[in-house]
Amino acid sequence: MTVVDAISRFHQAWPPACGLLPGDSVEVQAQRDFYAQRRDEALERLFQAIEVAVANPGQDWSAELERVSYESELEAHRVMRAVMAVR
């Protein structure tokens, strides 16, 4: 897996959170905040894996990027289910 592939998979799994809409309940606001926080955490883990890969060019880091991407996708699905359960 390349860095570009990992970033692409991240954006497919974690679409940007939309802002608050008029009339949103407190629960919906809380779920949007929860989603945004979890997305930021997942993005930070991806950036850390990319930093390690770039710092160690002689090593095969594609498996680590694959692992981080896969875990991020699983987390995105769990978070999306939690967010949608509130609606």
UniProtKB/TrEMBL annotation:
This is Uncharacterized protein. It comes from Haloechinothrix alba.
